[in-house]
From TrEMBL:
Pfam families: TRAM (PF01938), tRNA_U5-meth_tr (PF05958). It comes from Lactobacillus gallinarum. Keywords: Methyltransferase, S-adenosyl-L-methionine, Transferase. InterPro entries: MeTrfase_TrmA_AS, NA-bd_OB-fold, SAM-dependent_MTases_sf, TRAM_dom, U5_MeTrfase_fam. This is 23S rRNA (Uracil(1939)-C(5))-methyltransferase RlmD. The active site is at residue 417. NCBIfam families: rumA (TIGR00479).
Length: 460
């Protein structure tokens, strides 16, 4: 083998010609060079491209697209004026119709890879398209940096510390972007310190702007390193004067924290929560509580999930990973009782508040992890006959699956945001459940990510 390609992470200048065979799970083009798999972001199936090999690993090569020699008919123009390296636009060069196909194929591919029992018989339905392919994100979470007196505001290029200044992000709503830019100007005007990682100087690190689709209310959170930041309150007062802004929060984090958010959140000015509305129910949201990023498409996601739940009035529904209580609240009038389980205390408080807002009398929330709380519920004699799980990308804990295989809820719907962990969890769950249907719902157009709803039915 060429010596050049044996050294891990060695850089190469050599251009090679590759025919792209398919897309990988992250939307990158996949081809082969000297029998080794090569990943080329930005290339599409059936294209012939010139690529640079930028990194070589024992089992694969990482390529960079240099030029397209033969173009795919499915290629569309990448949004103008946007750095192609930005995360969140991995599929923006592929027609939307093909993006939907890709997302369904990704699910089929994951099933093939992990092969849960009878997977070939699963009915994997066509992906439900998002009503808006662009400007659908109602929450912007931009990093701020000041280098040599110039302030940059935007997103880091994936796997790097290079902050891409974002005058426009085509998947982000206009209002959230406008508010982000206005806050940047205010920070400069009021000389509010921006966190400096190289020199360890505290200040504002991230600006989070979330807007309700229904009420248009905007909640701003300034994530800071350090608590006392010069001119933070004057800044919050100015932010409160911006269009639609109803509250400003501070969240405090630490230098070493790999997460964006820290643990301390404090309201600086305005309302405690913003008010969202989905399918006629109201949801108050505090800054750290999870809520879907595409509120228009969320209506379709929840409607489909409720359809597959098929509830009856005598059932107790466990809303596992309940967030601010969305699914349980929407289902409450169809069952005897709802019990929600969620780890984040603020989200549990929001869920309890939302139950009151919607005049619901049969829903309770427990703060804790599903894997710990569910066995406790079982041992205390609660009849767990209907279950909806909506876990983060990591999927269900093995310990939880073990409990479910004993409890065997009659009605079971799994909402997943990661086909790979869904397929892995189904391997174990399919010991006692048949998978009736998998319905993909595209919440995040232009990205490789997709939400899926799986209906599980106890095998008789
Ligand atoms: C994908 S969100 C779903 C939220 C909600 N069902 C909705 O539709 O808005 C996942 C939620 O699970 C919570 N969570 C994460 N791990 C958990 C665990 N082990 N036990 C309980 N909740 C958890 C997160 O805080 C988050 O609110």
């Amino acid at each position: 083998m060429n010596k050049k390609f044996t050294n891990k992470k060695q850089h190469h200048e050599k251009d090679v010609i590759i025919t792209i065979k398919r897309l990988g799970i992250n939307g990158e083009g996949i081809g082969y060079y000297k029998k080794k798999i090569i990943f080329i972001p930005g290339a599409l199936p059936d294209e012939v491209v010139v690529a640079k090999i930028v990194k070589s690993y024992p089992h694969y090569l990482q390529g960079e697209l240099v030029r397209i020699k033969e173009k795919s008919p499915d290629r569309v123009a990448f949004p103008e004026g946007v750095d192609p390296e930005i995360g969140g636009l991995e599929l923006a060069h592929l027609s939307y119709e093909k993006q939907l196909e890709f997302k369904r194929n990704n699910m089929l591919e994951s099933l093939r890879k992990y092969h849960p029992r009878n997977y070939a018989k699963y009915k994997v339905k066509k992906t439900i398209p998002a009503p808006d392919e662009w400007h659908y994100r109602n929450k912007a979470q931009y990093q701020i940096e000041n280098v040599h007196g110039k302030t940059k505001l935007g997103l880091f290029a994936p796997n790097s510390h290079r902050l891409i200044d974002l005058p426009k992000m085509p998947t982000q709503s206009e209002d959230t972007q406008k508010t982000e830019r206005e806050i940047k100007v205010l920070i400069e005007k009021l000389h509010v310190p921006v966190a400096n990682f190289r020199r360890h100087l505290p200040g504002v690190k991230t600006i989070v702007v979330r807007q309700s689709e229904a009420s248009k209310e905007i909640q701003v959170t300034l994530i800071t390193i350090g608590h006392k930041i010069k001119n933070l309150i004057p800044l919050a007062k100015e932010i409160m004067k911006l269009d639609n802004v109803v509250s400003v929060y501070q969240n405090e984090t630490e230098w070493q924290n790999p997460q964006v958010w820290g643990n301390k959140t404090e309201k600086l000015l305005g309302k405690n929560q913003i008010m969202e509305e989905i399918l006629g129910k109201k949801f108050a949201l505090s800054p750290r509580a999870f809520f879907q990023l595409n509120p228009v498409q969320t209506v379709n996601l929840y409607s489909e999930a409720l359809k597959y739940l098929d509830l009856t009035p005598d059932q107790t529904l466990i809303d596992a990973y309940s967030g601010v209580g969305t699914l349980g609240i929407l289902a409450a009038d169809r069952v005897k009782q709802v019990i929600g389980i969620e780890t984040i205390p603020e989200a549990v408080k929001d869920a309890e508040h939302n139950v009151e807002l919607n005049h619901i009398k049969n829903a309770d929330y427990i703060q804790g992890s599903v894997e710990k709380v569910l066995p406790e519920l079982k041992n205390s004699g609660v009849s767990i006959d209907a279950l909806i799980v909506d876990p983060p990308r990591t999927g269900l804990a093995k310990k939880l699956i073990k409990t479910l295989l004993q409890v065997k809820p009659e009605t079971f719907v799994y909402i997943s945001c990661n086909p790979s962990t869904l397929a892995q969890d189904l391997v174990l769950l399919s010991e006692v459940y048949d998978v009736r249907v998998i319905q993909n719902v595209d919440m995040l157009p232009q990205t490789p990510r997709c939400e899926a709803i799986a209906k599980l039915v106890l095998r008789k």
